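We modelled the chain as a single entity of 163 amino acids. Its sequence is:
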Amino acid sequence: MLDQIEAGEIRNNQEVAIRQILEEVAAATSMGFVAVACITETRWIACQVLDQIDFGMSPGDELHVSTTICNDIRETGNAVVIDNVSSNPKWQTHPAPALYGFKSYVSMPIVLSDGSFYGTLCAVDPSPRKLTGPGIVPALETFASRVAAILSERSSLGPILEQ
């Protein structure tokens, strides 16, 4: 039987507007894997996924939250943008890039209208990408805000996120 978080993510996977945002993020960043993830202290669950590089994740799949950079975003509330892990001293020793095989990474926090942290809008690619260029980060912040607005409208999210 599915728990409430998984059931909520299955409902969110059916949200066409979120799918469109994932496509826009992929186009803006040239990154092959884009996802919205629900993140708690103990769980990372893929809500909706656009996988153009056979990353191997589907909606409802989980990662060990402690192995993700998204967990850092949950803890700090700050976005993380990495053009090239290999040339970024802060992130080149983090276990996630080697574990998941990516060179570029971006993750924006998704904060709901009530101020609660939902998760992240994240993207990875096995190749370095120029993500810190003009306009990209503000666009990604806007995409994350749009996802937050869509999710905030869903009245069923409150109980799901409290788990």
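As a brief sanity check on the tokenised model: Residues 4-157 form a domain with the Beta-Lactamase fold (CATH 3.30.450.40). Strands lie at 33-39, 44-51, 62-63, 80-82, 104-111, 117-125.
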